[in-house]
Amino acid sequence: MANKINPSNTEKAFSELRSIVARLRAPDGCPWDREQTPSSVKKYILEEAYELSEAIDKKDPKLVAEELGDLFFMLLLLANIYEEADISFLEEAFAGIGQKMIRRHPHIFGDVKVTSVKEVAANWQAIKTREAEEKGEKHSVLGHLPKSLPALQRAFRVGERASRVDFDWVKPEDVWAKMAEEEQELREAIKTKSRDHIEHETGDLLFTVANMARLLKINPEDALQKTIGRFVTRFHIMEDIIRSQGNELAKCSIEEMDKAWSVAKKL
């Protein structure tokens, strides 16, 4: 059974954190915190979000709580900067997202009936389309995925959203032909020695691979991160093996490195 949340303790901790942030931003506060701007804080928010993602992958609740706290701090620092010009900023942010969630969940807060996750997603898209029209904006099924997302993750999400209107392959096996086509086009591009052409075809192949992963229910960003992690770990072991033999990596032949690499993979 999950632990029960004590609202008074949670609210107290949240209030204390807000007070800490305000103190740091005060005229006699911390010089570093005081010089921060919305633009300068962006990179820290992204870094903390990625660190939180890593903590989740490690399945360590205490580490997740620590990284979640770090992210909350940066978000509250950002909010405090805006509140210095508009004291109701955070209140409006909370109220706005609360109203949006109520509006987009009519099956919970209204009388709409749904029987599946697919129906929930369809309702969500219909509501977002109506909201965009009311604002005089053009709505796309693809939404507005930020360009700052890692490219593989963005490819995964774009394909996912396109699939909502069945613009997709039916099954993973159907993608093999497309992958073979893109591979051949990349081979032809390499022959032209045109960097732009090669870049274009490389992107097409990577996009197709990302969609293959999606159809296999694998997040390609997570898969690649894990592969990179394994490579880094094995590379470090290979370096240690070569050092233990009194050699230097830069002076080793490819055959010597391959031998040490094979040992590293077994370890």
Fold topology:
Elements lengths: L6 H19 L5 H5 L2 H20 L3 H23 L5 H16 L1 H4 L7 H18 L16 H12 L12 H18 L2 H21 L4 H25 L9 H13 L1
Helix pairs in contact: 1-4, 3-4, 8-10, 9-10, 11-12
Describe this entry's structure for a reader:
With 267 residues, the chain is mainly α. The chain is 73% helix and 0% strand. It has twelve helices and no strands. The longest helix is centred in the C-terminal third of the chain and has 25 residues, at 220-244. The mean pLDDT is 93.
> At the fourth CATH level, what is the homologous superfamily of the largest domain?
MazG-like
CATH hierarchy: architecture of the largest domain:
Orthogonal Bundle
Distance between the termini: 39 Å
| Class based on secondary structure composition and strand pairing | mainly alpha
How many distinct folded domains?
4
- The percent of residues in helical segments reads over 70%
Mean pLDDT: 93
**Which term fits the overall shape?**
extended
- Helix segment tally: 12
CATH topology of the largest domain: Helix Hairpins
Beta strand count = 0
Show unreliable segments. none
Strand content: under 5%
Radius of gyration: 25 Å
The CATH class assignment of the largest domain is Mainly Alpha
Order of helices and strands: HHHHHHHHHHHH
Largest sheet, described in full? Answer: none
